[in-house]
Here is the input.
Amino acid sequence: MNNDISESLQNLINAFTCLPSVGTKTAERYAYSVINMSEDTVKFFADSLIKAKETLHYCKICGNFTDKDICNICATRHSKVICVVKEPKDVRAIEKSKHFQGLYHVLHGTISPLENKGPEDIRIKELVDRVSNGDIEEVIMATNPDVEGEVTATYIAKILKPLGVKVTRLAQGIQMGSDLQYADEVTLTKALQDRREL
Amino acid sequence: MNNDISESLQNLINAFTCLPSVGTKTAERYAYSVINMSEDTVKFFADSLIKAKETLHYCKICGNFTDKDICNICATRHSKVICVVKEPKDVRAIEKSKHFQGLYHVLHGTISPLENKGPEDIRIKELVDRVSNGDIEEVIMATNPDVEGEVTATYIAKILKPLGVKVTRLAQGIQMGSDLQYADEVTLTKALQDRREL
Here is the structure.
């Protein structure tokens, strides 16, 4: 403990450093801002932390975070399309595009030999069950376009195709609003291969 | 409320956006990381927030944050030098340099006509009282080297000098480890004016 600051302030700074990419400087900034917040705001902040941790768990169907048994999306949407993503925050990202009205399936990871993660360590079995039991027509693989994401997508496609379901992959190509000259070679090659008629 | 995420998660995201320079994206990242923390960590986090807000207040002498009547520095250090800063986090910054063993005085702001802040809105009176009553030999003005900081330093110096105390200002010049070609003109001028013999 630094003797120039009191224990409760040091504890708060330590707590903030538990957040991703928050170092001491940022944690200090956050901590000092908390002292200047109203008492109600701080109480709301603390309550939100406890409540989120207490109530949130995986949706029984899709694996997204929810505070009910079944998440809002699984409970209200009737769709024959499942979008498969790596993490709950990917659901958030796709929902924000507002152009997908189907269901989701969160894998909570990808196949990664480097991290010693095999197919049985992520929620593939649950996906196969969903496809086998329901009348799903299409599964969109929306894992990240990196090595692990590609491997996982290919692996899952191989398992699902025999079940008679269409398996697709998110389009890969140059980013909207980007500059062609800065696109990397792999992306450009992919964009050329997958070119479409206008 | 977005219907794709549950209320408790949305509340947590909202809470994080109360922190300085935290937008929705960062708040989401923080919120998801909280769900993956252990229950103990989350409890510690929430407790730290509440406790810091509850227990921290201004030190009766220097104005820094403390959970006692008088802060650790005022209680333990015997010095005839006071370093005057704008905010509590400035105390932290100077303490980290480990080259100052004196006392502090936190103004909690600077004179700023733009923000309608006059000398009576910051803790100048308390500083004058300290200098008048104690046997202080030197007051170091460590307000920021911007317009408000300079004005405040000059104003305070004018009041304190008649009390027979030495008033100094932190040295201004080119930053250690920086590159001369990128130094701005005002800084270079200051560095030339205040050059010292080797």
Observations:
- Residues 59 and 70 of chain B are 5 Å apart (CA to CA).
- Chain B touches chain A through 54 residues (CB under 8 Å).
- The longest helix of chain B spans residues 39-55.
